[in-house]
Here is the input.
Amino acid sequence: MDLILNYLDSIFPTTQQYGYLHLVIEDRLLSEKGEAFKKEIVRLKKGVLKNQHLR
Here is the structure.
């Protein structure tokens, strides 16, 4: 499945690729939720939790 996703990423413009969209959404959430939320996410990322495990 990763090979298929990597291939699909390579044929779509950057702004339509999942990695780019993930960063745009993450930036928007961090901006909208405020500084306290952002600091908590940074704290969690420095620890055991990563955003992929929060789903």
